[in-house]
Amino acid sequence: MFDPSTLAAPIVGAPMAGGPSTPELTAAISAAGGFGMLAGAYLTADGLRAEIAAVRALTDAPFGVNLFVPEEIPFDAEAFAGYRTRLLRLAERFGATLPEHVEYSDDAFDAKVAVLLESGVAAVSFTFGAPAPEIYTAFADHGIGTVTTVTSRADAERAVAAGTAALCAQGIEAGGHRSTFGILDSDTEIGVRELVADVSALGVPVIGSGGVGDVDDVRAILDAGAVAAQVGTLFLRTGEAGTKPAHRDALSDPRFTETATTRAYSGRLARGLVNDFIRDFSATAPPVYPQVNTLTGPLRRAAAEDPQMINLWAGTGWRGAREVSAAEVVAQLTPGT
Ligand SMILES: Cc1cc2nc3c(=O)[nH]c(=O)nc-3n(C[C@H](O)[C@H](O)[C@H](O)COP(=O)(O)O)c2cc1C
């Protein structure tokens, strides 16, 4: 059974949905002694099966898969329509058609759970919530480890009560989506070290995540009580990652000087480099997920080469991201090597 305390290198490669996560990146991190996590979000069940097979073709080393846990809340049609109207001028500029109606989607969660139960992967991690206790039990019965990503002590307690085998404590420094359990929840904004120390008391192994820019940051996370650090942003410029060129370039572009959390792209809070889109739309973006994510999709695709428009997910340690191999990142981040 997956035990994050026993990794040769205490580095978990963050799942990064929407492009950056690739079988090559997952395999390279695991082969280098860390633990690669494939992003399962936004894929179909068949697509996920194919990506798992692609990792297997590259390495025998164990790896994991991450899923977004769905939460269906009443759809705020007025807020959605209002936000759509505010985006129309921009959409016109880029020749994008924004959908008027977006159906709720649970991202094929049950179908993907079924694929994973039979997949033989070493671990599954959950983001945006803790699934039902039966799901944790089913994975345990199949010898598959479980990790639940949390941003607060309260969510960590819920995950442990539901049966998670390990926690990923995601600090406010982290790039990408915040794994708050409730879409409407306000952000606790707790730093990774404080959160690791707090949830370590709950009796399951803790992986600390957020803002790693160098090996000292990894050491600080381990010193706070974590058994490993989950790192995303520092892998974004590696050759194995599927990061879009405009995103890749922005990470080393001195015009980008800070990161912030925003609901502007998806309706859920996520941290990225501050660009024009974040500046213009963060204040009015409604907490309507996943519909806002689908709404902005055509715009993000039409403006894929414009770093002022697309989501440039990045954690606070983004300046440490280098154009090196994933194995080099694992080696550089491993204390004592
Ligand atoms: C581009 C990008 C995409 C991400 N996608 C996911 C995801 O699909 N699932 C998930 O659990 N976390 C995702 N995250 C968050 C990571 O799991 C992790 O918390 C974060 O990368 C850690 O902070 P760092 O980027 O500063 O290292 C993503 C992060 C980034 C930067």
TrEMBL record:
Asked if Cytoplasm is a keyword of the record, the answer is no
This protein's cofactor list reads: FMN
Instruction: Fetch the SUPFAM superfamilies from UniProt.
Output: Inosine monophosphate dehydrogenase (IMPDH)
UniProt keywords (A-Z) are:
Detoxification, Flavoprotein, FMN, Monooxygenase, Oxidoreductase
Asked whether the UniProt record includes Oxidoreductase among its keywords, one would answer yes
Q: Which Pfam families match?
A: NMO
Reaction catalysed by this enzyme: 3 propionate 3-nitronate + 3 O2 + H2O = 3 3-oxopropanoate + 2 nitrate + nitrite + H2O2 + 3 H(+)
Gene Ontology molecular function, alphabetical: monooxygenase activity
Q: Which family does it belong to?
A: Belongs to the nitronate monooxygenase family. NMO class I subfamily.
According to UniProt, the name of this protein is Propionate 3-nitronate monooxygenase
Source organism (scientific name): Gordonia caeni
